[in-house]
Amino acid sequence: MAMTELEYGDLLDVAALKADCEAVALAHSGHLLDIRAGLLPILKKVSADGRELAKEKLFQDGSGINCARRISWIQDQLISVIFDLVVRHVYRDKADMVAVSAVGGYGRGTLAPGSDIDLLFLTPPKLTADMHKAVEFMLYLLWDIGFKVGHATRTVDECMRLSKDDMTIRTAILETRFVCGQEALVTELQRRFDQEVTNNTAPEFIAAKLAERDERHRKAGDSRYLVEPNVKEGKGGLRDLQTLFWIAKYRYHIRDAGDLVRLGVLSRQEWRLFEKADDFLWAVRCHMHYLTGKPEERLYFDIQPEIARNLGYQPRPGLSAVERFMKHYFLVAKDVGDLTRIFCATLEEQQAKAAPGLTGVIGRFANRARKLPGTPEFIEDRGRIALADPDVFKRDPVSIMRLFHVADLKGLEFHPDALRAVTRSLALIDHDFRENEEANRLFLAILTSRRDPGFVLRRMNEAGVLGRFIPEFGKIVSMMQFNMYHHYTVDEHLIRTVEVLAEIDKGKAEDIHPLSAKVLPSIEDRQAFYVAVLLHDVAKGRQEDHSIAGAKVARKLCPRFGLNAKQTELVAWLIEQHLLMSMVAQTRDLHDRKTITDFAEKVQSLDRLKMLLVLTVCDIRAVGPGVWNGWKGQLLRTLYYETELLLSGGFSEVSRKERAKHAAEMLTQALGDWSQKDQKTYTKLHYEPYLLSVELEDQVRHAHFIREADKAGKALATMVRTHSFHAITEITVLSPDHPRLLSIIAGACAAAGANIADAQIFTTSDGRALDTILVNREFPIDEDEMRRAATIGKMIEDVLSGRKRLPEVIATRSKGKKKNKTFPVQPHVTISNTLSNKFTVVEVECLDRIGLLAEITAVLSDLSLDIHSARITTFGEKVIDTFYVTDLVGQKVTNENRQASIVTQLKAVMAEQGDELRDRMPSGIIAQAVQRAVPVQKKAKV
């Protein structure tokens, strides 16, 4: 949408600005500092008022590109007025022979509210002192106003010489635009640049720009579906559109991107798509700059809701306003990717015809097209599959699916023209197409391919085929989930899940997932399993639970794919239960027999257990970088092995007492080089829960640790160990027991910046606590991690002994941290006496914050509850913490009034910001006991 001079004139009264500046110059004639001081408030006010008007118009018409053009126009007027004033009243010696030109984004006539202003001052070959001073005066004045100005002062000859050697300078000059001064210099620069630099160097420039783009994408995350995208630099962002225009200007010597239609590079419809994408991305960027008051380019979670409101998005059933906004954003990013592919294809074809012998980025397309044996519809064109003729899809719509199948079989990339033809033929994918047996057979072959199904599925999705062929999948295309846990849109997550499965299937992930790699080949129904993996989140964004709704979708789709009734029910069960194993492994005590029996009752068969394991692994891996770690893998393996033992009938029927007695005997034998007295003393320290749940190797290590502490007269000691494969670090604490012990340890870990993943809590028979805290690993090198662990251990000792006060150290850690108000997570507490035979299970779910675990455990202690084990799980901004507790005499909490009190007090602390409670948290409460080396309190036997 073009804008008239009248619309620009509404932003700023240029004549009045000139008159005001002229009056200042005349009033302070010859006094430079006084002139600058007089001009500054006038220019600041005009600039601020003009940008505020541009903001108002952005809210009125919603056009981002017009907002950027308005701000650029305002900037032009300010610079022109300043230049005119300087050359007429301040520096008169040929200063008017300088040309002021805009480069970079400003050179395109667009400026975001917080953008830098890039200027090129062109001078004649002989630079006078006044020319230099005039440029300096202008720059100082612009800086004083508050602009960030990138600048260079050069002659035309210097520009030519530098642009031949420096691709950045070459790109800047490509977008040179005259602003004020000696226009002839800018015209000469543009003419000579076209003649001396761009002629016969297009392949070099294109290769450099595409390589620069690829590196930029890599740094920004290499995906257009990141849920906190970089609007300017990210894949599918503004810079990708700008790169296309740079290449077009360089290759075709055009000044207007609209000329791409005249040249046949883009169709009129594609050009309209270009304009719409550009306008939308500019609108988002301008709103971001206005909202944050700075040149923010990443669309962070905390500003997404406000941007959505500013752009007028409204919630719909199953989708919030911000999720609808972000879905639109990702659809636009996809359009940018499509345009990039179409543009580069046309460019490559034209370049290949013009210079078939070229090498490099363009030269790889020099080989001639050849027929593909057995597939008359398609040809191979320089390593890519292409259509034999334009009417292939019209004659047989199923050829759309066949195109992707053949590409998979032959290991070919897709010719952009073929994908363009697919996109234009999407209307052919109708009800008859979806019900076609051959189309469904081909799709299933693509999905279960042993080559690279993720790659082909992603191309199908980008071309719009997946969403048309599976309308339920189409509903989640570009859908984001507004939380910190999921890094990608739902469709991208599902395709990445298939990619992880294929990686394990090909034996390429044994080092990361040894158990999954071992069990996957023995899974009986590979077809059904791949379908379940692709569809496990297909019902996201609905009001109904997505697992249950997804199972319904599966029952509808699977028969169409050609799966029988048994396979269909298997897929439906896997989708309905796809979160089960993850939640049990991460939030339940896996040493509690009831946990395993309950889980086994739901799984029922070994084959289901295998599939659920691998599906869970793929699902977590595909959430995003850094979400998977070895500790989660270990939890899943533990749950798998324990359940496998039960399902195969191998679970021991020997009584708990007898098994504990046997474990004690094994520990005694393992301490065979000790005296009989020490063997007896240190074996009798432990109760049944410890003997039955701790590995013998760890029991021996603990025995040595306790004996060394006793010999040294230490009542308080810590021991650390790292597990690189599990990505976990273990800190064992020996201390006089106290109800608040876990709370203080958790607070000390929070103060040291450690995230607790698990806690094993035991009491010895002489009234001491032997607690093992597992924290997430931070450093890849063991030596670095050991130093960090030692620091955490020292913090725990300092807080327990009273050398440091817990409220103070937590307050220091929290200082400067913004409270997370972006994600409203309602505090939720569940109390269950059915999840364990011996313990009451208290599960809390709420928004995470520093010191939260310490505060929750402090409340549990205040309520006279004895914590026997804890599972600490973080899902982005949300935590789900589970505590296995009893009352102080070792019994479950069954009284309803008491349960209600627990819920009320826990919800209260979860809703607090933490400051008040931290002030009440004690430090050094066992310091005196430590000094006396006597226990404070002895827990009841369990």
UniProtKB/TrEMBL annotation:
Residues 730-811, 841-920 form the ACT domain. One of its GO terms (molecular function) is [protein-PII] uridylyltransferase activity. Residues 1-373 are annotated as: Uridylyltransferase. Signal peptide: none annotated. Keywords: Hydrolase, Magnesium, Multifunctional enzyme, Nucleotidyltransferase, Repeat, Transferase. Its EC number is 2.7.7.59, 3.1.4.-. It catalyses: [protein-PII]-uridylyl-L-tyrosine + H2O = [protein-PII]-L-tyrosine + UMP + H(+); [protein-PII]-L-tyrosine + UTP = [protein-PII]-uridylyl-L-tyrosine + diphosphate. InterPro entries: ACT-like_dom_sf, ACT_dom, HD/PDEase_dom, HD_domain, NT_sf, PII_UdlTrfase/GS_AdlTrfase, Polymerase_NTP_transf_dom, UTase/UR. Its cofactor is Mg(2+). It comes from the Bacteria. Uridylyltransferase (UTase) activity is inhibited by glutamine, while glutamine activates uridylyl-removing (UR) activity. One of its GO terms (biological process) is regulation of nitrogen utilization. Residues 490-612 form the HD domain. CDD domains: ACT_ACR-UUR-like_2, ACT_UUR-like_1, HDc, NT_GlnE_GlnD_like. Belongs to the GlnD family. Modifies, by uridylylation and deuridylylation, the PII regulatory proteins (GlnB and homologs), in response to the nitrogen status of the cell that GlnD senses through the glutamine level. Under low glutamine levels, catalyzes the conversion of the PII proteins and UTP to PII-UMP and PPi, while under higher glutamine levels, GlnD hydrolyzes PII-UMP to PII and UMP (deuridylylation). Thus, controls uridylylation state and activity of the PII proteins, and plays an important role in the regulation of nitrogen metabolism. Has four distinct domains: an N-terminal nucleotidyltransferase (NT) domain responsible for UTase activity, a central HD domain that encodes UR activity, and two C-terminal ACT domains that seem to have a role in glutamine sensing. This is Bifunctional uridylyltransferase/uridylyl-removing enzyme. It comes from Ciceribacter selenitireducens ATCC BAA-1503. The gene is glnD.
